[in-house]
Design brief:
The complex is a heterodimer of chains A (about 160) and B (about 280).
Chain A: E1 3-10, E2 13-20, H1 25-32, E3 51-54, E4 57-60, E5 73-75, H2 88-95, H3 105-118, H4 124-130, H5 142-162
Parallel strand pairs in A: 1-5
Antiparallel strand pairs in A: 1-2, 3-4, 3-5
Helix pairs in contact in A: 2-5
Chain B: E1 2-4, H1 9-18, E2 23-26, H2 32-37, E3 45-48, E4 58-61, E5 64-68, H3 73-78, H4 80-85, H5 87-94, H6 99-102, H7 107-113, H8 120-126, E6 130-135, E7 138-143, H9 144-147, E8 148-150, E9 153-154, E10 161-168, E11 175-181, E12 192-201, E13 204-213, E14 220-221, H10 223-226, H11 236-249, H12 260-279
Parallel strand pairs in B: 1-3, 2-3
Antiparallel strand pairs in B: 4-5, 5-10, 6-7, 6-10, 8-9, 11-12, 12-13, 13-14
Helix pairs in contact in B: 5-8, 11-12
Classes of the chains: A alpha+beta (about 160), B alpha+beta (about 280).
Amino acid sequence: MSKHTVTMTVNGTKYTREIESRLLLVHFIREDLELTGTHIGCDTTNCGACTVLMDGFTVKSCTVFAMTANGKSIETIEGVAQNGALHPLQEGFWEKHGLQCGYCTPGMIMSAKHLLSNNPNPTEDEIRWGLSGNLCRCTGYNKIVEAVQYAAEKMSAEQEQDA
Amino acid sequence: MRFLQPGTLEEAISTRVDNPEQSVIIAGGTAVVLMLQHGLIAPEVLISLEKIPGLDSIRIEDNRLHIGALAKLGDVADSRLVRQYFPALFAACAAVGNVRVRNQATLGGNLAEADYASDPPAALMMLDALVEVKGISGTRQISLPDLLLGFLTTTLEPDELITGVIIPIPTEQPRMAYLRYNNRSSEDRPCVGIAASATFNDAICTGLRLTVGAACEIPTRLSEIEALAVGSPLTDTRIHEIAEGYAAGIETIDDLQSSAWYRTQMIRVHIQRVLKGLRDG
């Protein structure tokens, strides 16, 4: 068994840990860092529940070795709310009932966050394509799309206010 | 299992030479990690290419587009150069999996895996791309038909790595398309993928390149059928003839997704759609 030391910044905090080489990023996040908001749905790249941002790009953390994330910056669902205030996306999922069981929600929110950072005013079609690969077995997706639309509108309005 | 991250190509190649049987090369990992998860492979050594600098660039040199092996499929799809000169490659890379897969998966890894149910290889074959390969005795450039041998199999020697893909920029910009047909959900593996480019002088077709992928063990291009298009207008009758030629000339795959018979029907249908699209601009 081979051990390696990795250092990565997760939600703004730097962590250094000794890990086994075959450890996947999702297990590093959940077990080594005890950030259990990132879920494991399928373990085989199908469901998107484990989606996190790595250096600003969404990845399925069950398909990335922790070694690959060494030196990189990771954002998980725990880093989305700022100073106790829900992010507009989290507020959107609350307001529009974008979840039932909630298992897929962290992955949905991370994917939507990446989508909105590239495309602040997506069409419904663009939202559906952006979330393609994140599976939800409860909602039928309509409420999730509405939640992302809510967030896009709110974030655009906030930006206009700032400008 | 050891996880090695060599810092240079030479180091990666010599590591591979030292562990020919027990090692697996990993780039983006979307295929290799899945195989590990399913217990299909159990390497003693994983040789990761991710720390090798300079292998992810997309640039023009000597009138040819060079795409580094570690360029992500998403980067290829987002590249201004790719969109400008090779819209069929853009469309093929943008069709793979979903955004999270494209953020990880690399073009070199896609070719090295040689999975038939994939989009980029058909587009690259249609574009006459060359694959640049580096091994212990130097570098060589091989065409897609010379690289892809069959189901998950390439002609790469154990010491050889794909370092990039080189695509000649055509002197006259052809009309180009890639059409992916999914018979199930959008992020599923393709049932049939068709890459095509055509040039026209008024209504007369002056050149056609047509490759069918995902339906057969390796992407297939039938030059004698392509030649039927040249020198006359692409009438519906002529297009039908070309579609029939490809449907008859390709040995299709039976898998969990589609039967071989169904794939043959879909080749016939979708070649007609692609060619009518190119003809009508």
